[in-house]
Structure of Aldehyde dehydrogenase family protein:
Amino acid sequence: MLARVVAPEGTGEEIFEPATGDLLGRAPVHTTDDLERLVAAATEAQAGWAALGHGERSARLNRIADRLDAVAEPLARLLAREQGKPLNGPNARFEVGACSSWLRATAALELQEEVVVDDGQQVSVLTYRPIGLVAAVGPWNWPLMITVWQVAPSLRMGNAVIVKPSEKTPLSVLAMLSIMAEELPEGVLGALSGGREVGASLVAHPAVRKVMFTGSTAAGRKIVEASGANLARLTLELGGNDAGIVLPDADPKAIAQDVFWGAFINTGQTCAALKRLYVHESIHDELVEALAEVARAMPMGRSLDEDSVLGPVQNSMQFDVVSGLVEDAKQRGGTIVTGGEPLTDLGPLFYPVTLVTGLHDGDRLVDEEQFGPALPIVKYSDVDEAVASANRLDVGLGASVWSSDPARAQEVADRVEAGSVWINSHGGIHPMVPFGGVKGSGYGLEFGVEGLKALGVPKVVTRRSAE
Ligand code: NAD
């Protein structure tokens, strides 16, 4: 069974299910007193946790993974109800499974000391020590997985962590954290629940040495400002507007399914989803038709319905962003190929997969992050022009190039300004492969050995070489 982490009777913030509008539960709203209590407990526990060493800490991560596997189904159902994502497809069950496999992969990483100079005069060795207290602040789209991305390497490196989940999806994260904490010394992992003010007070706390933040670019900027006071190190995974460039030699039918999921995974509410697609004019119409065929075959429905692979938009604010951008696209002469109107029969937050053609750079649906089930498809005639379009915005999380010629695809990939560029796929992540953005998408790397290093402080010891 899942541990219940809810607010005391009659208090807390009401959390409603996006698919049904039903009340799911009440989340605690923590105060600055709670923050101080958590910081004191974390500070006291951290040195002992660090002293356990990598072997024992990795063993604990593996045991946490076992515990999550044991509650995978109820956790997936809670996640589905709270976030809105369906159980099946790359959704709730997938996300919970990814949490335990990520914990195991993080436990298995090898962090070696680096001999940076050994020249006969001196030997200098670089190692990474624990930072101390990490603040982990996350969004609502992949709430469990992103929490694990932040927490697993923090713990592995010997830090204490206080997590501030999104106020839109606190219940599933708090439930997962309470299970994780059962394998950890008291105080090493804390949870602080509440809105952005609570997050702001956490990241600005003088005891915080590192902030792992995933969320909007606007909030990321505020966190950079706050770090001026405590000089916390930052890893910022912020918003994106990933471009996909389809070269003339791509095979529309062969790529349609992968392009579709690149854009519409988690019903489009994914940081590194394909958010604007540039297609060469020679295959534009064929690809649009192939994508529309895939879209029409994908069942959208309620989260606990076993047939659904697409769900509602998580919240009304995001729903308004998506529908507003599509309305704007219509007014600018965009052609709606599929979707284009809310699916009110399913519920107030359902918006269909919406493919829009006939748009250009400068149109809002192309230039602004929709973070939902609408994709602008822009026709181009010259590859240089498509690369310039991909690079013209002040974000650079991911991008993709689609082609049947690997050398040509690589050449285009090299010119695209983004932290990750995929060839013939979009958005795939791997626990060994570093991930992070450029420009307004943030800075710092997560995952793999680089991700571990980002949760430690470098320390160099230099000694004279032996005579
Ligand atoms: P958001 O920035 O509104 O909120 C994210 C979290 O930050 C929440 O927990 C919120 O309470 C907290 N917060 C807000 N203001 C804060 C402040 N000043 N100080 C401290 N904490 C603060 O983002 P969201 O709407 O939850 O998420 C959607 C956005 O996140 C999209 O732009 C998406 O692209 C981005 N995102 C990026 C990645 C990535 O890896 N780059 C992953 C997922 C989502």
Notes: The chain has two domains: 13-238+439-462, 242-423. The first helix runs from residue 32 to 51. The longest strand covers residues 122-130.
